[in-house]
Amino acid sequence: MENFSYYNPVKIVFGKGTIAKLASLVPSNAKVLITYGGGSIKRNGVYDQVMRALGGRSILEFSGIEPNPRYETCMKAVELCRREKVDFLLAVGGGSVLDGTKFISAAVGYTGVDPWEILKGAKVQSALPLGCVLTLPATGSEMNPGAVVSRESTQEKLYFGTDLVYPRFSILDPEVTFSLPARQTANGIIDVFVHVLEQYVTYPAEAFLQDRQAEGILLTLLAEAPKVRVHPNDYSARANIMWCATQALNGNIGLGVPQDWSTHNIGHEITAFYGLDHAQTLAILWPGVARNRFSGKMQKLAQLGRRVWNLQGNDETVAELAIRSVEQFFAEVGNPVHFSAYGIDVAEAASRVSKRFRDRGGKPDGERGDITPEEIEKVILSRS
Hints:
The protein has helices spanning 22-25, 40-43, 46-54, 71-84, 95-107, 182-200, 208-230, 235-248, 262-274, 278-292, 294-309, 315-333, 346-359, 373-381, and strands at residues 11-14, 31-35, 58-62, 88-94, 130-136, 146-151, 156-161, 169-172. By secondary structure, it is an alpha/beta fold. The chain folds into two domains: 11-176, Rossmann fold (3-Layer(aba) Sandwich); 182-381, Dehydroquinate synthase-like - alpha domain (Dehydroquinate synthase-like, alpha domain). Strands 1-8-5-4-2-3 form a six-stranded parallel β-sheet, sandwiched between helices. A two-stranded antiparallel sheet has the order 6-7. α6 (182-200) packs antiparallel against α7 (208-230), α9 (262-274) packs across α13 and α10 packs across α14 (373-381). The radius of gyration is 20 Å and the shape is globular. The two termini are 37 Å apart.
């Protein structure tokens, strides 16, 4: 097991009716900006619950944060915060709303030329405090210090992270996920699944507890995903999926182990160029990465196959069957595993994405630092 340090200050408030807890979680004298997406929170009753809980506080609203939150949209909220002297942010939505709100939090006090520099690695010196009411379990953003933001004008999608944007609290009420469209439910499950794979399917590090925790999340998702497709209002299934999403990316299973994240990094570029949902890119790309790096990942792939799917055979056979099992699960959840399903020209995509990585210096990706722009091109071409 590798050395690590771990810090996570987020207070999780989980369960039915917990949105009412906002009354005690948000400072009573705060000037609050509520951020949300396209308005589904007004149709499913979450908005009304939030407003009741906040009572007589000074409240402003900012709506329209997109899936894959855009820098251009978030900067409008930054301007609003500066003008109205907002001192607390409350994100009400899924991971995209929370990611956008984290950027807003960091950008309000940024003194550089352009807050986009934060996504390019500029140090964040201050951030507005923020809380979260989660409505879509997927990204784990409710219990981590990272965010991904897109810039439409340059077709870029980049990550930043700082301890200053950990949410002060996150409310997780599984009942608010009952009304999620099937597409969003599928995307969330696949996002969570691949978060685990990026931290688990690398190479052995003798981190036995972390391996078992990762396998537990995968096994839970395999058991619960079919249930919500048939019974969207199954509270137990929704609760377990929601908690899996948080546990997959709050740092726990990644402690002391090598991590990959190349699937995510390649997927971000596909989303930036072609507009595919984040999880749609992951379902296509992860099997390609796994096969491209097969020899280096074989031991953990075989472990995945034996422990999660009870597959039998030698390491090479079980490793390949494990990849096929992942592909089958993604397809059963509802996301295709080839670019042809979305009409994308893989030759064009491979060329555009590999060029983007070369233009950024061609720094190798993956847990071994051996996924070059040339290998990225091969991965994309393999998923036609």
